[in-house]
Each structure stands twice: as structure tokens, then as C-alpha cells.
Design a protein that fits this description.
The structure holds 2 protein chains of 2 kinds. Chain A has 3 domains: about 120 residues, Nucleotidyltransferase, domain 5 (2-Layer Sandwich); about 140 residues, ATPase, nucleotide binding domain (Nucleotidyltransferase, domain 5), CATH 3.30.420.40; about 30 residues, no CATH class. In chain A, about 35% of the residues lie in helices and about 25% in strands. Chain A contains 9 helices and 13 strands. Chain B folds into 2 domains: about 140 residues, Rossmann fold, CATH 3.40.50; about 180 residues, Rossmann fold (3-Layer(aba) Sandwich). Chain B is built from 17 helices and 8 strands. In chain B, α1 links the parallel β1 and β2. In chain B, α1 runs antiparallel to α6, α6 packs across α12 and α14 runs parallel beside α15. Chain B is globular, with a radius of gyration of 21 Å. The mean pLDDT of chain B is about 90. The chains are: A alpha/beta, B alpha/beta. Chains A and B meet through α3 and β8 of A and α15 and α16 of B.
Amino acid sequence: MVQVSDKTDGSKAEKEAFLGIDVGSVSCKFVLIDIDGNLLTHVFLRNRGSPIDSVKDGMAKLKEAVQENEELQSYTIKACGTTGSARYLTKAIVGGDLAKTEIIAHAVATQSMYPNVRTILEIGGQDSKIIILRDGIIIDFAMNSVCAAGTGSFLDHQASRLGIAIEEFGDYAVKSNNPLSIAGRCTVFAESDMIHKQNAGHSREDIIAGLCDSLVRNYLNNITKGKDLDEPVVFQGGVSYNQGIVEAFERHLGCKVEVPKYNVLMGALGMAILVRDHYIDNETETLFRGLDVSEQEFKTSTFNCGDCPNNCEIVQVKMPSDENKVIARWGSRCGKWEVF
Amino acid sequence: MIVSFPNMGPNWVAFKTFFETMGAEVIVPEPTNRNTIKFGVKHSPEFVCFPFKATIGDFKNALERGADTLVMAIDCGPCRFGFYASVQERILRDLGYKDFRLIPLDQADLLEFKWVKVLFDVSPSKSVSMYSKALKAVIMLLKKAKLLEDIQTAEGLFRAYERTQGDTTHVVNDLLQQLDQTNSLSGLRKFRPIIKNTFANMDIDRTRNPLRVGISGEIHISLEPYVNIDLRKKLGEMGVEIHQSISLYDWVMHKLHVNFHRKWYEHLAKPYVPIDIGGECRWVLGEYIDKANAGFDGFVHEYPFTCMPEVVARTIITNKLKKMYDMPIIYFSFDEQSGVEGMRTRLEAFVDLMHSRRNQDVKTNKVKLVNNQKQYGHYGNNFCHECIELIQPK
């Protein structure tokens, strides 16, 4: 696994920077680090429509941040890595050097902050995962596969139904003295249970605390089934902003749960570290197209293959500025159209 | 009489010979595709397992192309699979398909010879010559099934070494066509060298030292590539050597009580599941232990969503065996979903996990790599060893 400090080499005169991009289901994150692994700047924004638009927006924001900051301008981006569910598409668009799964990226980032970490809990917008590490290597992981119960999107939905902002959700839970019991097996049951309790006149604080508790129970039953959760435990991802969930985890696990400073940026940070190590190991010219990607035009089109009864819908992205070259194409079952 | 049968990966080659040798006309099921699944999902009970939905879709395709006799395996085993043939027949009749017969092929114990009746049923002539034809049909089926197993073994090994991605897939498709055209016993006898030569002529990178992974699980899911979203191919193209012992031949031999490999798995699994509870539960457990002892890097378990026996196996592995044998395992539960992204993420992460574990093991000297090659010992069948010799000549 990647060690953070032992590969760094400060002798070079030029200031080198590395970019990590994490395009998730709900938000996308950009992190710029220097060669020692210090975070220089970051961008966090909600997805808008396609990942292409989100990445372009993010790049524009990053460019602004760099232009505003004198010091950042002395850095050059030497390599760029992508992660998240749209990692290959993003890699094709920005010209990434490395694409890795978010599981590895999260583990690497967490290890850089907590070298002895043994359990990583991660709950994001659409998926939740657990990573188990021993002696610095990942020995096990699990990810929700079919059900989005207990992820950020569900909490978001419930918050808007109860009429409170998602940012305040956790504070309500902490105020409760008597958390209700809410069915946690499935969010459909949880929601009808909540409506019932609401109509029965229970306070919002108690309902929210009960919901946090049931969400944690659901996570522990579904994802961590049969795994040993040892200390130190680190909890990250968007949901870790929610103090109610953090406390529910501490109650259920019976130990301290750490929330890192950059809890939502961990994927992008890990990717930046990974691509930095990739760069140090094999010094190759980067494929990165530069921060001007935001002004680049990409044309997306779809067509049906029709060569077999599957009739797959193929999506392709072209770059008009580069002789209309196809930079990414995907969607076929058999893989014959795939370009990444 | 026009016979058809459901899809199960490349095994159409064997089934086709089986019925053609009896003199029946055969319609080979069209490759499973989105329309097959759509039909199956629409007209099946919702909580039935996925193979039911896929096979009923195959039957509908066959009926529309003119088949009038469908053959479906049944089993008096402990899982609901035994009822699939009769339920499917009813559903198809209710949908308005009238002129067809669905012949159940009883495979609960092949030594009871109930399956012979199926052969006589599909035979157009009812003379004495039928008996000699039946004998030949069985021999042809077994021979082709064994050759299909060999192709599968070689495919799993060679894909991890191929220089151009997709070479192995082409070779396999060519061999399947060639095997389908070979319809004499003498031709089949010469076929194994053909398989070896074709694979040996591939452009492979012998210096690689790929991870070794075992795949097991429910038989239909494990063999039908559309249903398991090309799991074998995907994993192979990430540079992983695949050892899958499950195949049609393996199953038939087991049902003829001469599969000693499976007997060994049963022995290994006995402390956890002493009786057959359906699916591949016992053998998955046994294979997990066996492969862990042979020093494999990982294991993949695939099963249809809602399959009880496989879920039992999964729970026993996570809660008990994994802690004892410490071999990484990943599970895939398949249903009609066709989203590939989540699966690919988990597969990639799994491969990374196995790599980092291996590097750690090499560092701490838990594993010795001789000339950077992992030693195989006595694992795998004869053909598997012959293939390994082709890749790493001594």
C-alpha cells in the first residue's frame, strides 16, 4: 500500500502539484496537493446533469481559485487522477493519467491522516462502503450493491419532508433525549414508520434521532455483516457531517469514531496521492489537458448498435477541436464499441 | 419434431449433438439478450430466481422460431428448481402457445436412467435402431461436454496472459464453431490437440505472474455469460487467471456418481453443511476451502438473487471460513439489473486488494515466488496442467 512520506523528494526546484478528481453520484470533488501531500486548494460542487458538465464546472472553479491565489500560480500540475463512478469518462475528458476505484482512493487518503486506521466507514450520496485494513493493507471491503437504503439521498429526502435543512439534521438528533425506534430494514418501511410516529405527535428531535439510529443499524447489518470492526474507526463521506449519525455509530460500536477534517474530499485526496506516487514511480509526461478543459467543447451523441438483438444504446463523446476525435464511447454489452 | 432447449453458455454445442444424434431437428436457442430477459421478467413470478426468467425467455424465442418440443431439466432436489419445468409450461400455455410439448429431463440421479425416456421421446423413428442411436448420443454428449470444459479451462488460464485484449475470446468462439461442426467420434478424439494448438499459437506474454482466482456458484449463473455480465471475461481482462471447475461435464459426472472431485468438496464441507441443501452450497464451501489450501489469491461467488442455498454458503463463508482460511472472497448476486458500473468498481477494487495482499505476503516471506512465478503444485486436472506447461515450459 502507499506510504505517504517516504517517497517524497524535495530537491526539485520546480513546484509540482497533483490533481485528484472524484466524480460521485451526487457531488464532484477536486483536490490539488503538492508533492509533500499538503492540500493546496479544493473545489466541491453538486453534480449538474452529466458528469461532463460537472467536471467542466469544477475545472472552471479550480481555475478561478488558482487565478485568485498568487502562490498557487507557481505550481504546475504534473499529473491528474480520477476516481468515483464516472472515473473512466472523467479520465477521458480531462486527460487523466490514472483511474482507480473510490475504495482504494478512500483507503489511501485515510491512511495518510491516520496511519494506524483499521476500519473505514464511508457513507456518500448513493452508496455506502466499509473498508477493513490491517497492517496498512486493505484486507476486506464491502459496498452496497442493490439498495440505496441508509445513504445520503435518503436522509436528504427525509429532511425535506420534515421541513428542515439537511445541514441541521444532525443537530436535531443530538438534542433528543428519547430516540424512537424506527424500522431500519428498508427505507420504505422506515418512511411509513416515520410518518406514523409523526402523526402520533412525537417530536421531530426524537424521530430524527430514531432515524439516525436505524440507519446505522441498517448499515451494520447489511454492509459490515461478519466483519470485525476494530479501532481506530474513521467515518467519512457526506453523511459524516451529521453529528447524530456519528453518535449513533459510537453508541453501536462502543468506541470513538473519528471524522477527518476533509471528510467529503477523501476520495479526491486519495486519488491525488495515488497519482503523485504513480508520477514519482514512473516519470511520464502527463496526459492532462490543463485547466482550460472548462472551455473545451465536447459533443455527446447516442446511437443504437443494432448488430444483435440487444440493440445496445451507445453513447459517444467527441472533441470537435481535435478533428472530431472520439475520446470516449461506452454502453455496449459485448464491449466492441468501448473506447476510454 | 423440432427440439429446443434453454441457454447455458457454450453448452448448446453439447445439447445440440445430443438431440441431433437421435435424428431430431434442433433449433439452437438464440443467445440470451435483452428481449429474452424482458419477456422472462414480465411473465414470471416476481420472487423466483433469475435462471427461471432467463430460460422461459429462451423457450419463447424457440417457440416463435418454430420449435414444438422443449426440453428442460428437472430435479427432485431440495430447492424449487424441480418445479420450474411445470410452472414454465403452464405460463407458456396461458400465454397462448398451444402446440408444444415440454419434456422434463429428470436429472436427480442419472443412474436411475429416467432421462433415457427423453431420448426415445424426441426420436422420430421408433424402431430398434433407436437404442444404438441413444448410446451414441450419450457418448457424443459426454465427449463434447468434456471438450467444452477443456476450452473453458484454457480460456480462464490464457486470457490472463494475452497480449492483445480480445484474442482469447476470438479463439474460444472459433473453437466452439469448430467443435459444433465436428460430429464424428474420430473427429472428437482428435479435438483436444486442436484446442491445445490453437491456444498455444496465441501471442502471449509468458513473463506475467497473474493472480489466481477461483470462481464458483449456481451453475446457470456461472455458465451463462449474459446473465453474469461477462464476469469471467471482465476479470480475465484485468489480468487474473480464472479457475472454474463448475461445468456441464462436471455436473453430469456428479449425477452419475463418478465425480470424485465433488466428493472431496463434500468431505471438506461436511462440518458445516452435512447434507445437500440445494444449489451448489456444499460444493462452494468445499471449493473455497480447497482453493484456500492450494494458495489461491481469491475467490468469486456468484448466485441469483433470492437463492437460499447460495446465501447459506455465503453466510458460512463470511462468518466462519473466511476467518479460518483468510482468502479474500467477493460475492455477486445477479438479477435483471444490467448496470455494469457498480460491478466493475467492486471487481477492480477486489483485484487491487489481492495485489496488495500478495505484495505484502512476498515482503514478509509468507509466499516464495520461484523465478517470480507462483508454483502450481498438483492443483487442477490434467488438461489444466498441460495448459500451464504451454504457458510456462519447464
